[in-house]
Design brief:
Elements lengths: L12 H20 L2 H32 L3 H16 L1
Length: 86
């Protein structure tokens, strides 16, 4: 899901650990080719994706709920858009 250096403002230590664990399970499943390892990887992938989507949603909702003025809303939107490009 994520590759290279990402500047996602909602990406915290726990999410990075989930991504590392998912990647570790992927390489383990790929090298051993055991179906049980593939199932563990797929479960970790689904859980990681769900956590990432929830974290992004919470981050955006917090910014939108904190924005009282139109100018602050657009500044926040541009900051989110710019971080997604990097």
């Amino acid at each position: 899901m994520l590759s290279g250096k990402q500047h996602l403002l909602w990406l915290n230590r726990d999410l990075k650990k989930k991504i590392r664990d998912k990647n570790r399970l992927y390489f383990q499943a790929q090298t051993t080719k055991i179906p049980e390892n593939w199932n563990k990887y797929k479960e970790a992938k689904v859980a990681t994706q769900k956590s990432l989507r929830k974290a992004e949603w919470n981050y955006v909702n917090n910014i939108l709920s904190d924005s009282l003025s139109t100018e602050a809303l657009w500044v926040s939107r541009n900051k989110i858009q710019y971080s997604a490009i990097l």
